[in-house]
Amino acid sequence: MDDLDRLIPRRDPNRRTRILGILNVTPDSFHDGGADASPEAAAARARRMMEEGADALDLGAESTRPNADPVSETEELRRLLPVLELLQDAPVPLSVDTVKARVAERCLEAGASLVNDVSGLQHDPEIASVCAERGAGLVLMHMRGDPRTMSTLTSYRDVVEESLRFLEGAIDRAVGLGVPESDILVDPGLGFAKAPEHNLQILNRLREYLSLGRPVLVGASRKSFLAAFDGPTSADRLEATLATGALAVLGGASVLRVHDVRAHHRAVLATEAVVNAQPVPAENALPC
Ligand code: HH2
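That is the input. Now the predicted structure with 6-hydroxymethylpterin-diphosphate docked in place:
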């Protein structure tokens, strides 16, 4: 079993790339904010994503969209814990999208097994110690500043080179705080302190992130840099999102973080069939 199979086992033997379904329990996320008014509605959406082929779910209670208002630790936990409680029996790993060590710790106690730190240990490095103590997986993402400042921090000489160096440093810090390298995933952070061209350069050169020796997670789902090709609102951006998902698979991504699980499940199967020049066996061509 390789590291990724241990952290996020794949549910469909025909598909190599894992699908991480996004479950935001926020009023203000850029695409699905306010979608679920209650923990029960969020859990129902989670179950739908699992039926559609999600290999893992990423629960978030603090939006990271530009200029989002920060959320207190208490409020983040008030939003997350009831949903985790309802998903105790989930057949897939649960990830928590947080930058706060205490939130991560309580969520790991409540059943999560991965922590998705979009700050790449800049906000609260203690988050790595919490993961180390509990044997949890840790996603390290590249960004600059925070949601309030990141839109002004988009000047790069070479965005790929600079985010690679950042991720290399973040891996070293996490390992120094006790996280085994085998429990770490990396993410170039599309849309986080990046101008549109930076996101395109990252997708175009995604293979360079494989040099870090860790599975690469990509989150392009319905982000605003796709507006030029698809639609002005996130609701219009499915086709461009699927195109970037297929290209990310070609670029060596191991995990796609997505809002639309069923569509990605099918798009990834098709992309991988072409990459492998092998049709998916007819009996399980459309598992959902
Ligand atoms: N993108 C978002 C949030 N968390 N985590 C990782 N690792 N990579 C990403 O690209 C990423 C992420 C933003 O998307 P979303 O959760 O849909 O929106 P919001 O932050 O507004 O809740």
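Residues 1 and 261 are 25 Å apart (CA to CA).
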